[in-house]
Amino acid sequence: MNGSASPLFKTGIMGSALSLLILIWTFILTQVSYERREAIDAAVRANIHRAVALEQYVTRTLERADLATTYIAARYAKNLQQPVRGQTPITAINDAALRSPALREINVFNRDGDLIATNVKPAPKSLSVYRTEIFQGHLTRSSTALQVNPPARSRFSGDWLLLLTRRVNLPDGSFGGTVSVQMRPSEITDFLRHAELDDADLISVIGLDGITRARREGSKLSFGQNLHGTLVMRMQERDPNGTYLGPSSIDGIVRYFSHRRLPQYGLFVTSGVSEKAVLTPIRARANGYYLGGIIITLVAIIAAWLLLAIARRRIAHEAEVLAANERLQEAQQLAKLGEWCFDVAREEFIWCDDLCAMYERSCAEPTISLNDYTNLVGQHGVQIFSDALKQSQRFGGRQEFELVARLPSGAVSHRRIVSVPDFDAARKLIGMHGTDQDITPRKQLESLRQQVSHLSKLDALNAIAATLAHELNQPLTAASNYLSGSIRLIAARADKKNDAILEALAAVRDQIYHAGEIIRRVRNLIGNGDLQVNAISLSEVIASAVTRFEAAHPGCKVRFEKGRSVEQATVLADPVQIQQILVNLLRNAQETCGLKPQIYIQTRRGKEKRIDVCVIDNGPGIKDGRDLFSSLTTSKGDGLGLGLAICRTLIESMGGEIWIEDTGPDGTMICFSVREAATTDKPPS
Question: Which pTM was predicted?
Answer without folding.
Answer: 0.43
